[in-house]
Design brief:
Strand order of the largest sheet: 1-5-6-9-14-15-16
Mean pLDDT: 89
Distance between the termini: 32 Å
CATH class of one domain: Alpha Beta
Number of strands: 16
Helix content: 25-40%
Structural class: alpha+beta
Radius of gyration: 20 Å
CATH superfamily of one domain: ApbE-like domains
CATH topology of one domain: T-fold
Shape: globular
Largest sheet: 7 strands, antiparallel
């Protein structure tokens, strides 16, 4: 997944060995990578991306389910979330290729890359766990959802062992259960979205929940007074350009929190907030107003954090 991970387990059940748990976690994450990584040439996803066949392709149940969930969130957001956005990400210099120009790509280049994307170009056969690409060159990138999936996979494994307390984190996506080593609820900090600095905006105490944050304050470049975010809006093919700096989503599953955090980040502080309220999402928005960052939280977020606090 191109990132690191950590798992904190204050105490193990009787008879469960630490080394065995560590090996189990490593095996699970290697399995996720082998299915969903775009870094590994022979991963299941890489083979699908290389295929230019318009025939149905049967997938592993895990890969099918995560692509289908991604497609569902794309439909619910009218394309603000789209796992086929890779050609646009690469065009703007946030993929493996350097940007052709620091002024950004031309309108014709954007139009061409955008024509190679579109979640609508995927078809699904739930019974066979198969997908079909209507566009042979369609490229799927799960980086906006796979970390959350990996968190859930590890958490589910620990649940199967009867581990009562844990904190699983992959690339900033988190799921916690039970109590910390201090004997109280887990606690994390939502960062103040200031480039180059680490400051706490808000602390969240929680248990039995997953948390994901998306923001544009770490990965961007500037040129001649213009700031280009790594978060690309699939609907217009351009970096997002609004005042929302970060959004944090709480959910029962990290995979959903991960995807929705990205989707709401694309939608922005107004459209994203309206949709989050409509969907009953627990979301915490930080948007820029002048020199300050102002918070706004959904009704569901307020209810959850009040209960956990």
């Amino acid at each position: 997944m191109g990132t690191g991970y950590s798992v904190v387990i204050p105490r193990l059940p009787s008879g469960v060995k630490e080394q065995s748990v560590h090996q189990g976690i490593e095996s699970i994450l290697q399995g996720v990578n082998q299915k969903m990584s775009t870094y590994i040439p022979e991963s299941e996803l890489s083979r699908i991306n290389r295929s230019e066949s318009g025939d149905w392709m049967v997938l592993s149940p895990e890969l099918f389910d995560i692509i289908r969930l991604s497609h569902s969130i794309s439909e619910q957001t009218d394309g603000a979330f789209d796992i086929t956005v890779g050609p646009l990400v690469n065009l703007w210099g946030f993929g493996p290729d350097e940007p052709k120009s620091l002024d950004g790509p031309s309108d014709p280049e954007i139009a061409l890359a955008k024509s190679l994307t579109g979640y609508q170009n995927l078809e699904f056969s739930p019974v066979e766990k198969a997908i079909r690409k209507k566009m042979p060159g369609l490229y799927i990138d799960l980086s906006s959802i796979a970390k959350g999936y990996g968190v859930d996979a590890v958490a589910d494994y620990l649940d199967s062992l009867g581990v009562p307390d844990y904190l699983v984190e992959i690339g900033g996506e988190i799921r916690g259960k039970g109590l910390s080593h201090r004997g109280d609820q887990w606690r994390i900090a939502v960062e103040k979205p200031i480039p180059g600095q680490r400051q706490v905006q808000r602390a969240i105490t929680f248990s039995d929940i997953a948390i994901a944050t998306s923001g544009d304050y770490r990965n961007y470049y500037e040129h001649e007074g213009m700031r280009y975010s790594h978060t690309i809006d699939p609907r217009n093919g351009r970096p997002i350009n609004h005042t929302l700096a970060s959004v944090t989503v709480l959910s029962d599953r990290a995979v959903r929190a991960d995807a929705w955090a990205t989707a709401l980040m694309v939608l922005g502080e107004k459209e994203g907030y309206r949709l989050a309220e409509k969907k009953g999402l627990a979301a915490y928005f930080l948007y820029k107003e002048g020199d300050d960052f102002l918070p706004r939280e959904t009704t569901a977020f307020s209810a959850l954090t009040t209960q956990s606090g």
